[in-house]
Amino acid sequence: MSLEVSPYLARDTDKTIADARRLWVSLARPNVMIKVPATLEGLPAIQQLIGEGININITLLFGLSRYRQVAEAYIAGLETLAAKGKPLKSVASVASFFLSRIDVLLDPMLEKTMAINKSKADLAATFHGEVAILSAKAAYQIYQEIFDSERFGRLRAQGARTQRLLWASTSTKNPAYSDLKYVEALIGPETVDTIPLETLAAYRERGKPESRLTIEAVKASGTLRRLSDVGIDLDAAAQQLEDEGIQKFAKAFDQIMNTLGEKRRAAIREPVDIETADPG
């Protein structure tokens, strides 16, 4: 289970830390994770909270350079915890990489290049509908590099767990693509895939389990660097998606809070009938 820090605090480090602590103490469950966005302001919050032994689900993660920073914050937090003499084995974290939204943003740009620039059309076509999966493969390469390192090995020896990659936003938004596009391509060790119920039902019916995440993964980073040849800045796209994601999270957060408020007010207004039990 994960519970989200208010998205209105996504640009405020200190308030994010305070809200995460409040939620952690209020729930008091060892299997709970507190969601913290992977904003620049969220990075020091992640490090601080991990250093206090709080489980963190990093959300709104779109870019590879930011993912490196997230993993660094996790490891630095564990090192702080270890320096305090606290156990590491109970701390858990996932880095939630949002995928289909990447293709939703970039596909129209690529289609425009394919239509008006003959010299770059073929290259743009190779990226169409593929940037999200390439990003996931490149992220997994970074994951293996970081968590197979000597630095993390010292923490692992003390009981630390890796910060697993979690694939989010895995429903297919483009009807021209397979509804299993962001499921089958992302199967790999030590990862988590959050799948909507409709996608899960489709996978149960037609899915073919096989580890595919590492197929041509070594080439993924180099391939992504060629995006600049078709006029796309992947870091800038990731920042745009982060900004838009905060707004979407805030809207959803407001809807949930309004619904809960209405239910609470209705419960207070409605009289409760208490029948006297029949002693016979």
How would you concisely characterize the structure shown here?
By secondary structure, the protein is an alpha/beta fold.
CATH C-level label: Alpha Beta
Number of domains: 1
Helix content: 55-70%
The CATH homologous superfamily corresponds to: Aldolase class I
Query: What shape does the CA trace take?
Result: globular
Number of helices: 11
Number of E-state strands: 6
Strand order across the biggest sheet?
A: 1-2-3-4-5-6
Order of helices and strands: EHEHEHEHHHHEHEHHH
CATH topology: TIM Barrel
- β-strand percent reads 5-15%
Let me know the average pLDDT. 93
Q: Whole-Å distance between the termini? A: 45 Å
CATH architecture annotation: Alpha-Beta Barrel
Secondary-structure class = alpha/beta
Radius of gyration: 22 Å
Main β-sheet description: 6 strands, parallel
Please describe what this structure looks like.
- With 280 residues, this protein is an alpha/beta fold.
- The protein has one domain: Aldolase class I (TIM Barrel, Alpha-Beta Barrel), CATH 3.20.20.70.
- Helices cover 55% and strands 10% of the residues.
- It has eleven helices and six strands.
- The chain has helices at 13-27, 42-51, 64-83, 100-116, 118-127, 131-147, 150-156, 181-184, 197-206, 217-225, 234-269, and strands spanning 2-4, 33-37, 56-61, 93-98, 164-168, 191-193.
- Strands 1-2-3-4-5-6 form a six-stranded parallel beta sheet.
- The longest helix has 36 residues, at 234-269.
- Mean pLDDT is 93; it is low at 276-280.
